[in-house]
Amino acid sequence: MLEVKNLTKRYGSNMAVDHLTFSIEKGRIYGFLGPNGAGKSTTMNMITGYLASTEGTVLIDGHDILKEPIEAKKRIGYLPEIPPVYTDMTVKEYLLFAAELKKIPKGERMSMVNEIMDRTKTQDVSDRLIRNLSKGYKQRVGIAEALIGYPDLIILDEPTVGLDPAQIIEIRDLIRSLGEKHTVILSSHILQEISAVCDHIMVISHGRLVASDTPENLAHSMSDTVTMHMEVRASESEVTEALKGINGIRNIRFEESSERGIVKAVITSDAETDIREAVFRKAAEKMLPVLDMHSDRMSLEDVYLKLTGDTEVKPAAAEKTEEVQDNEDSDTNAENGKEEE
Asked: Which domains does the chain have, with CATH numbers?
């Protein structure tokens, strides 16, 4: 579906995207995750042909985005972080205009637009000016525009930024429904956003791809230890003696317990060794009542922080300029009038 090879973008001495290579398969929802300034938007812009790369190639169904832009872009629907909508048009006028630009046959435009408005739940605001819509509805209109022509690949750059919690849930549900018929790439710096809807996560940091796998496999592969918590009616020395010699245990420490006669043990073990049965049997042999026992692996949040290092990544010069422009656009929109909720 999508093949990215050695994709690079430099701004003078700044390396915004550093030799990215990855591929996207059909029929899945991919999350492109990384801190602000990591190079996500720059990568999205190069994939969609909005920005030329310094090096590397982007192939969409075998078509080079720079050498065969028309054929490649036919297969892409793109929603930038700020939807590029014409606010003096109604929703229906704008979508029909987008259909004309995408050379949808005249006889098919209205039925396609109506079907897409139904899918994106914008039918009830179809005759309203876009400038009078809430930000959530504007995002829906942007997604609807990306769906015109039913492209195979839908790319969404920070689709829930600035939305309230109810709108975020609605957009997430919409993205999940898109994954039933399209391949979706969702770019975000918010971990919860990616983990809530994506089948596969690609983590980018400082312009480099540092991990690519399912959420479950990422958490499993990055963790070399498992932490098990136990509550036992015994003394610390009795627990230590009972667990002595069990293969895989690296460390045992004790936490303060509020209950008299009960100790809380925190046991660190090798990830590849399941010690639960051995621990249970040893405790039973020593007649030590186990009141609670559960294991914790590294969470996806822990994996993300480990992969990206610090969370404060300095943006490349061009990305910083884009962010300033986005803020200026938002201020201009706010001055034009309050959005209806």
From this structure: 2-220+305-336 (3.40.50.300), 224-296 (3.30.70.260)
